[in-house]
Amino acid sequence: MSLTQEVHRPPLRTRSTDDPAVVAEQRADDYSNHVVPLTARVGRWQLTMSYWSLLSAMVWLFYGALAASLYGTTDALIAIGVSVVTYSLMAHLFTRWSLRSGLNTTLLSRRMFGVLGASLTALLVAATTTYYAVFESSTLAVAFQHYTPSWDIRIWYAIIVVAMLPLMLGGVQTWMAKLNAVLLPLYVVGIIAAVIAAAVRFPVASDWTSFSGIIPSEARALPGWLLASVLYMGCYLNMLMNVDFARLAKKEDDGFHRNVTFGWVFYVCLFGVNGTVGIFLVRAAIPDQPAAETGVVQAILASLGVAGLILIVASQARINSLNYYQSSANWGRLITNLFGVRVNRILLVVVSSAVVFLLMLTDVFSYLQSALTWQGVFVVSWVGIMLTHYALVPEDRASGPEFRALRLPRATWGLGVWVLASALGIYLVEAPGVPAALAGTAQLVALMVSVVLYGVLVLARRSSARTHADPRDEVDDPAAVWAECHRCAKSYVVVEMDREPLAGGAPVCDECATASLVPGRG
């Protein structure tokens, strides 16, 4: 840009309140492609009830049952304790980072991976939450088929997808919290009732703590508790969802959310309570069967009968509200990043539902473990890189890293580190002849490699954002002033606004700036 252009750049057209058009548009989208302004942050319990829909997923009961089935009850309980501590510590950091910056996972990771490279983050979350929606919906179908054995399970697949659809259309700002607040007490009462019923109906329940696992101690390359802890690393996706929800929190609720909504209280319930219940129910109700994905469902139905079916329906309605929310939001971010177009989230939910139904027809349980492992290594590598960046780049901690599309490269060396660490983890799991100790800890290896390589990268070459006229320098408080975008004519907080060099320095919001980088849309 020439000096003349710089001097005569168009002035910012500012306002001191939200743009009503943006507020109406983003009420369902929850600022999926934008910074969440302080005025759009939600109350502590509204956010807590929305995020705590995670608590009722059958997968958390399954993880506890699986860990105990493989390595024994004692080692599984130790792994659960280790996971509660480690997850709580990581959540403490990610909650504060996202809350202060108002950035979602895609925007937060742009500095590390580049504008295009960060699309892999959106793809990872979208694909994984879509897969979890398939798993949870399939679990519910199995529960219903238990009472209608003559029906083709595909009939239940279709019924469940259609019936669940209306529950998935709300966002955090609308009625997601209300739905989950109503269903949470039902889930809690149901779980307590299932435990009591199992203890009464199955005398063998008293021996659940003594089970030593189907893998003998001498056949384990490493201690059982460590292998079970690595198994729980497959749930690191929670850190990404933590970021996507914490950006909607009010700054004055920082302490509450770091301890309750996303912190140790949450993980004591998520892993501690659910995992222990899963172990107990499976060992009590079906002790002679291996811990399969449908085992938890069978154990609940065996304990509670039809009441157990009601419990499963409530739990799946809660968790799928989050699965569909995250899936649709991140598919939308991916489409915006790659093609420069914005798709309405309601349409994305409908399309996601169709994809979920088609994937359910493929027998999701047959490839559950492989899918969890593959996404697990990508997720732990992402977490490793983000934690390392936070530790080594202190200037990005307070208000978040630079994320604006016109100031960052399309891809960075950090993206290469992410892909390399993830590829190594997948190789350790899938390749023949890999030592058992490495194959069993592939996710831990991927985490360590990502931390070391990215640390070396940061220390070796400090990446710098492109510099040109910055709207943030033109106002007193970039987080409390809105400026109009010359492309969409809507006003967003100045924190995300930039000046577009190829448009004479005209102000542009980040979504429009991202679209301008797509070939043919500049």
Protein described:
By secondary structure, the protein is mainly alpha-helical. It is built from 22 helices and five strands. The protein has helices at residues 3-7, 20-29, 44-51, 58-71, 73-101, 105-108, 110-113, 119-145, 153-164, 176-201, 224-232, 237-246, 254-261, 264-285, 295-304, 306-339, 345-360, 368-392, 413-430, 436-439, 442-460, 510-516; strands spanning 14-15, 482-484, 491-493, 498-500, 506-508. It has a three-stranded antiparallel sheet with strand order 1-2-3, with no helix packed on it. The longest helix is centred in the middle third of the chain and has 34 residues, at 306-339. It starts with a helix and ends in a 6-residue tail after the last helix. Residues 1-6 have low confidence and may be disordered.
